[in-house]
Give the backbone structure.
Amino acid sequence: MAQNKQLQTLKLFYHPFNAGEDYKGRRFDTILGWSDDELEKTHDYIQWLFPLAEESRAVKNSPVVDVDTIRWFRQSGTVPNMILALKRMLWFYGFEIRWSEDTTEVEVEVEPKIKIEPKEAFTNGTGRKIFHRWLKPHDHNHARITRILRSLRLFGFYAEALAVNQAFQTYAQTYPGVAKAVVNKASRDIWEQVATYALSAWGHNGLKEFDLEDGFTFTQ
């Protein structure tokens, strides 16, 4: 019963026309309006902006979505708010996202909010400034990025997850003049996996239907 109430609270919090509140009485648009420093130092909002199908090990009382809730997110009018949450967090990490549509499909691009070459991300002062929240060997923001990627995949934003992962991978690698990998390999590997693997590979029952929706095929 408590879980059902929590998921209803999540739906009201996320729905663009209901302006619901999270478990601390914070509204969706209030959180997105926080400064970068507030986003950095507060640790119990990312679980509401990007919910997952398992409990948070760091923050109790975080939403845990079930198959019905995932289906609701994929079919309801919450898409604009998920996009707004993604835009805000990418800006926080030094990126911006754009969509371009041709006659056949929508293409998603994620690029630095200030033009900079990948090889300059760590050595250039501008790169250090815009990427300083995450461009480190180890940081709690690496786990946040993993959560964002996983949540995007759960709720049907496959193309966005691929583009976000590619952007982080591009600017986190080792380049000439940089003595060692900027972001540890374990973080980079998990980003790649959660962005590209089938959801059912994560070990959750019932997610295969969403893999099929996203274009994955399976052999018997």
In short: The mean pLDDT is 89. The chain has one domain: 2-213. Residues 94 and 130 are 5 Å apart (CA to CA). Strands lie at 95-101, 106-112.
